[in-house]
Design a protein that fits this description.
36% of the residues lie in helices and 15% in strands. The chain is built from 16 helices and 15 strands. β10, α9 and β11 form a beta-alpha-beta unit.
């Protein structure tokens, strides 16, 4: 049963809904070739074929059995594929493997799917692309690539990774049941309306400490820019009480660019007496951006993990110090948020590179659960996972963020938002989404390019949104 109806009735409705969508896309006379599997998705494919024939279209069905693909054995000696016109005149419908089936491909399927991917056919996938796992970012190398994938009834997790993997160009919701037409995704989302619904407004009685203080420990000789970018991120969301503890050697550089933070310069001799009292004064801490040559950096990391009672964001050099040293995360008494890109994560996570790259989500979830931390794994579709396994896959952003310093701005935004809400997961979703969305806004016109996007413009871009929403 599915939502109160029989599976047979559900397949019939799904087939009709997908056929109607196909006819809207393909309002020409091109023939359809439908690949079907042995499971539920294959049966939906057969219903699609029947509906398309009823509409007067030319349809050919090719059964592809995952475990025993008799029609494809031995594929290299068969004339089946060569007899099928896999070119621009053919519309191919992939209904081989569904969301509840193993995505592993048989040898013959791999050969056939590779031929399809090498051809010039228009391809539609039903529910998910065959060879993609529905509930992760894992895909088989030979998975079918589609122009459009029809998500039946609701989006699955694999549909959230459109920027990260190439198996589909677009996903469309195809809901066969009236009650399901509003379903978007079972996973947490973020957009402009949700962001401002959760962003706190200043009231007539607000003052600079309404959301407490935030603390950055950042920078070193040669990397004062990273400290500046943290401050740009925090100022983007209007953080009103910022403390910045930084090496004395770069204090004049940073202070000459930003007048409003309260600075706490330290030296190799004074680091502890400067930092220790600050930790208990703040609501959120960001550490590690540009701290490559910061003296006593490991001791500072230990001090934060063992003494902070507020969320701690670890970025840059703080992440690199975790290599062969992740056990120190177990000393943390407050939420810890790690913000690595894939290379940094592979360096400290203790898992084989191929294991991480095969399924980044599973690797991030395992690490988050093992060490009871939040992991923000940066990528075109950034993944954020909580210690209890909650997943957020970000949809905002563009290639404009593929530049040095982008992560420092994100750390600034995230640290500031953590002081504005007690919900760590919500703050992460808001920060990651906003970081990407402002890049989209900043390159939406023809004046500012993806190639040379200026991330220092973030506060000005955010002002546009604040004004739009009456802040």
């Amino acid at each position: 049963m599915h939502e109160g109806i029989s599976m047979a009735a559900y397949r019939s409705r799904a087939g009709r809904a997908c056929a109607d969508a196909l006819l809207m896309h393909e309002d020409n006379a091109r023939p359809f070739l439908i690949l079907t599997g042995s499971g539920n998705n294959g049966r939906i494919g057969l219903r699609i074929a029947a509906e398309l024939k009823r509409a007067g279209r030319t349809v050919q069905v090719l059964p592809v059995e995952g475990k025993a693909p008799q029609l494809l054995q031995p594929l290299e000696h068969s004339d089946i594929v060569s007899s099928i016109n896999l070119d621009s005149e053919c519309v191919l419908v992939d209904a081989v493997k569904g969301a509840d089936e193993d995505c592993t491909l048989a040898a013959a399927e791999k050969i056939l799917f590779q031929k399809i991917n090498d051809a010039d056919a228009t391809v539609y996938s039903i529910e998910i692309n065959s060879g993609a796992d529905a509930d992760s970012d894992h895909i088989e190398p030979e998975a079918i690539h589609s122009d459009v994938t029809f998500a039946i009834s609701g989006y699955r997790l694999t549909h959230c990774f459109g920027k990260d993997h190439p198996v589909f160009k677009h996903v469309e919701l195809c809901a066969p049941l009236t009650a399901l037409t509003s379903i978007q995704s079972p996973y947490p989302q973020m957009n402009e309306d949700l962001f401002f619904h959760n962003f706190p407004r200043k009231t007539p009685v607000s003052w600079k400490g309404s959301h407490g203080k935030i603390l950055f420990i950042n920078g070193c000789t040669g990397m004062a820019g990273a400290a500046c970018l943290n401050l740009i991120g925090a100022r983007t969301v209007g953080a009103s009480y910022i403390l910045d503890a930084l090496p004395e050697s770069i204090y004049p550089i940073v202070a000459s660019h930003f007048l409003t933070p309260v600075y706490h310069p330290f030296t190799r001799e004074t680091w502890y007496e400067v930092l220790e009292p600050l930790i208990s004064q703040v609501r959120a801490i960001g550490f590690g951006s540009g701290a490559v040559y910061m003296e006593h950096k490991l001791e500072i990391l230990d001090l934060l993990l063992q003494n902070a009672a507020c969320p701690v964001v670890l970025d840059g050099e703080a992440l690199r110090m975790l290599k062969h040293n992740t056990f120190i995360l177990r000393f943390a008494k407050a939420p810890v948020i790690l913000t690595p890109h894939i290379g940094e994560f592979e360096d400290f996570c203790g898992m084989a590179k191929n294991v991480v790259e095969d399924n980044r989500l599973a690797a991030a979830q395992k690490f988050a659960a093992d060490y009871h931390v939040y992991v923000v794994l940066k990528a075109p579709n950034t993944i954020a996972v909580s210690p209890c396994g909650d997943v957020y896959v970000n949809q905002s952003g563009s290639a404009a963020l593929a530049q040095a310093g982008s992560g420092d701005v994100l750390t600034g935004i995230l640290t500031a938002l953590l002081s504005m809400t007690s919900d760590v997961s919500l703050a992460i979703r808001m920060a990651v989404w906003l970081h990407g969305y402002l890049a989209e806004i900043g390159t939406a016109d023809s004046v500012h390019s993806l190639q040379n996007f200026d991330i220092t413009r973030y506060p000005q871009l955010m002002d546009i949104l604040f004004a739009k929403h009456g802040y």
